[in-house]
Specification:
single chain; Cytochrome p450; three-stranded antiparallel sheet; 18 helices; 14 strands
């Protein structure tokens, strides 16, 4: 898949990774044209803020089901053309899995569920994400950041990604789940499988992606199912216990818990980690905003929020028309896929003044954490992690510069983030 433009034609495919100037110039051209963009693969791309928000807010018209296939690589439908050797490899991996395989292959992830399934799942998981539980990890976030920054003054170069951003959300999530801190590294590795296969450069090899996902799911289940069953018998004050404890209200099965935890580990790791590194890069690229923040540290929350708009960690997602409908003057047939292009919506001149400017005093809504029933469950936690990390990193940023030559973006087009963000002593 490629993305190109000519005077008369625009060719854009969401999973084709482009460098930032080219990407935003292309998205601007999509917004400036009437209607929606039709990709060569047959998807409809919504690029304007109002259209994207409408798609996200109408689950009865636009189903979230394709997110499970396109973004998570865990289809609930077996391809009848799967060759026998591939099927044999998959069955060998799943043999002895500590959950019912039939239920596993038919289960809906919360990001790919619609009402009433989504309503039920969301009502259960909401009880685990209480303000009290999330706020209670504030001191743990501070401790992890302090530990990550210990000794930073003694090194000539500090990588924000490997030294802080990648480690923080995994360690905090391990605490929330009540699992061993050593599991943080495994959770980051499991999240990486998604970003480097389903959403990355390996996406074109369907068989290898499928095998990688099933191997990861097997490891994930082998680790978490015994913990889930133990917490069901002996609940504690942790997130897993809240999800599976017996109550008058509904509870998650082991498979449902596994599927939710997989989304949580991936989204929680990628959102916070990339938000931290994206914010640091955005501040260095806009020295007036960096100076403003240094003189007004109370603007740290604004710097984080503006970066969510300016460089959305998750650039787009998927919806599927549940019936023939119309959007932006285009007829969309039942079953066709729609791509709400969030990064584009967040820079729509119809919605924002000077949208290509990073402005930490801006008070504007964005769509980076979703909208409607799928609004990000961990939004408060991710914002808090990024704000605390930025606040504690700020004194060191004042004495360091960003190594622009060493800046490396992630290979995936779905996630906007950096592989390395080196801060060097000036």
């Amino acid at each position: 898949m490629t993305s190109t433009t000519t005077a008369d034609r625009i060719s854009y495919e969401p999973f084709t990774r482009l460098e930032e100037p080219e990407l935003y110039a292309l998205l601007q051209r999509l917004r400036d044209r009437p209607g929606l963009h039709r990709t060569d693969t047959g998807w409809w791309v919504a690029s304007r803020f109002a259209d994207v928000r409408l798609v996200l807010s109408r689950p009865e018209l636009f189903s979230s089901a394709p997110n499970q296939d396109e973004l998570a690589g865990l289809s609930t439908k077996l391809d009848p053309d799967t060759n026998p050797e591939q099927l044999q490899r998959l069955m060998a991996i799943m043999a002895g899995m500590p959950v019912d395989v039939g239920e596993l292959v038919s289960a809906r992830m919360i990001i790919g569920a619609d009402p009433p399934t989504h309503t039920r799942l969301r009502s259960i998981v909401n009880r685990g994400f209480t303000p009290r539980r999330i706020d209670a990890v504030g001191p743990a976030i501070e401790a992890v950041v302090d530990d990550a920054l210990t000794g930073i003054e003694d090194v000539g170069s500090f990588d924000v990604v490997s030294g802080l951003a990648a480690e923080l959300p995994a360690r905090v999530l391990a605490r929330l789940l009540g699992v061993d801190a050593a599991a943080a590294r495994d959770m980051k590795g499991w999240a990486d499988v998604l970003s480097t296969t389903v959403q990355g450069t390996a996406r074109g090899d369907a068989d290898e992606v499928q095998l990688a996902m099933v191997r990861m799911l097997r490891e994930f289940a082998d680790y978490f199912v015994p913990i889930i069953e133990e917490r069901r018998r002996n609940p504690g004050d942790d997130l897993i216990s809240a999800l599976v404890k017996a109550a008058e209200s509904d509870t998650l099965t082991a498979v449902e818990t596994i599927m939710f935890l997989l989304v949580l580990v991936f989204a929680g790791s990628e959102t916070a980690a990339n938000l931290i590194s994206n914010t640091v890069v955005s501040l260095y690229e806009n020295p007036d905003q960096l100076e403003l923040l240094q003189h007004n540290p109370e603007l740290a929350a604004g710097a984080v929020e503006e970066c969510l708009r300016y460089r959305a960690p998750f650039q787009f997602n998927f919806r599927q028309a549940t019936r023939d409908t119309e959007l932006a003057g285009e007829h969309i047939a039942e079953g066709e896929l729609v791509v709400p292009q969030i990064a584009s919506a967040n820079r729509d001149t119809r919605q924002y003044f000077d949208p290509h400017r990073y402005d930490i005093t801006r008070d504007a809504q964005h769509l980076s954490l979703g909208h409607g029933i799928h609004f990000c469950l961990g939004a408060h936690l991710g914002r808090m992690e990024a704000r605390i990390a930025l606040t504690k990193l700020m004194p060191h940023m004042a004495r360091r510069t960003l190594d622009l030559d060493g800046l490396r973006r992630l290979e995936t087009a779905f996630i906007y983030g950096y592989r390395t963000v080196e801060l060097v002593r000036g």
